[in-house]
Design goal:
This protein is an all-alpha fold and about 280 residues long. The chain has ten helices and two strands; from the N terminus they run αααααααββααα. It has a two-stranded antiparallel ribbon. The N and C termini lie far apart (about 50 Å).
Amino acid sequence: MKNFIIRAITAIGIVGVQVLCTYFSPLSLGILFLLLTALTVNEFLGIVSQNEGVKVNRPVIIIGSCYLFFAFWINSLVKGETAGALVLFAPYLLFILYNHIKELYRKDTNPIANLGVITLSQLYIVLPLSLVNILAFTQFDCFSSEAPYYAIPLAMYIFIWINDTGAYITGVTLGRHKLFPRISPKKSWEGSFGGALFTIASAFAVAYFFTFMNTWQWVGMAIVVVVFGTYGDLTESMFKRHIGIKDSGHILPGHGGFLDRLDSMLFAIPAIVVYLYALSLFPLA
C-alpha cells in the first residue's frame, strides 16, 4: 500500500509538470524536453556502459544530444529555410564526426561498441524527443484550422497515460495470455486490448475539445500511440533484461528512471509524425 501511494504521488507530480510546461509556453515546452533529453541520455549511457568494453565520454555526448534538440526547437519555431537549417545543424554534424575520429586515437578494445552506443543514443532517444518540436510547431495540411502548439503533445500524453493505465487494470483483472513472455512476462494480450479500448474511447473526448482534426483522425492517432507505445515499452524491457536490471534508474520514486517513464513516447512521437504527414497527403473527409 505504501509503495502504491508513493507511486501515485510521483505520477501526479510527473503529469502535473508535463502538462504545465507543455501548456504554459513554447519556451517551457522546449526547456522541459531539453532537460528530458539530457537526463534520459545520461541514464541510458550509464546503463549501457555496464556492458563490457563500452567506454564513452558521457558529458560530450549529452552536450551533443542537447544541441540536436536545440537545433530542432529553434528551426521549428522560426520555420527556417533550408540554408538556415543547414547552418543550424552543422555543429551537430561536427559532433558526429568528432566521435568517429576520436575512436582512432583512443585505442579502446571495442570501438564498434562505443560508436554503436553513441549512435543508438541519438536514434533511440534524442531524435524522437527532438521530433516533439515537429508535433508542436508544424501546422499539418490535415488540420481543418490552426491548431494550438500544445494540442498534439497533450493528446499524446493522454493517450499514453490512458493506454498504460487501462492495460494495467485490465491485465491485473483479466490477464491470462502472455503478450511477450520472453521480454515482459507480466504483460498480457487482455491488458493490451483493454488499454487500446480505453485509449480509443478517450480519443472521442479529445476530439470534442480539439476540433482541428475530426474524430476518426483522433481515433487513428490513438491507435498509432497504442501500437507503437507498446513496442517502445517492450524495447526498453528488452534492453533492461539484456543488462540484468529492473529499472533504468531510481530518481523517480515508485517509477524507476526517466527512460522507464518515456519508453512509450520514444516510439510514439516518430510514429505520430509519420501518421500526421500521411494524413496531410491523404486527408480523411
